[in-house]
Specification:
178 residues; mainly alpha; 50% helix; globular
Length: 178
């Protein structure tokens, strides 16, 4: 939806706490890319880019209301698109575009299964289906931001409680800092 491009001049990008999980080389590339974008995104270019982003939000909302299937996805290689975290950002943008929190969650679960013709074994939590789970501390149907309040994850029948997830993040941070 061009959010990163439209708001690249905002200081929250360069001070995002998730940068600590990004390798130094990637951060350097992001800085170079951002510097060139910031030089271009001035005056009318910035106004136009932000209007384009707002229009994209309107279009996504209109598509949802028209019954077009929406699939959540992220552009991992784009600057400031943080692997693992960016899906939460995307869900928030889908809600900002007019989808309900439930519709946004379905865009990341049920809809992709349907798109791939795999509804019989993916997309919902039911006996006999393949499913990984993210267990949350708060209901995302009331606030899509609650998808970030992760208590545990179940992947391939293995439980990763919050302390294990925190340990993985700490290892990612240490690896990124090398």
């Amino acid at each position: 939806m061009l959010h990163k491009t439209a708001f690249i001049n905002e200081p929250y990008f360069s001070s995002d706490p998730r940068l600590k999980y990004v390798p130094r080389e990637t951060r350097a590339w992001w800085y170079t890319w951002t510097k060139s974008k910031r030089l271009w995104l001035q005056g009318d270019n910035l106004v136009y880019t932000r209007k384009e982003f707002e229009k994209n939000l309107e279009i996504v909302g209109a598509m949802q209301r028209a019954g077009v299937g929406i699939l959540a996805g992220t552009d991992q290689l784009n600057a400031y698109c943080f692997p693992g975290f960016s899906l939460h950002d995307e869900l928030g943008l889908l809600v900002e575009a007019g989808l309900s929190p439930l519709e946004a969650l379905q865009a990341a679960t049920l809809n992709p299964a349907g798109f791939m013709g795999r509804e019989k074994d993916l997309g919902t939590i039911e006996k006999g289906k393949l499913a990984d789970l993210v267990l949350l501390d708060a209901n995302p149907l009331g606030d899509i931001g609650n998808t970030r309040r992760i208590n545990a994850v179940v992947v391939g029948r293995q439980l990763f409680p919050k302390p294990a997830l925190d340990e993985m993040l700490a290892k990612s941070e240490a690896w990124a800092g090398k």
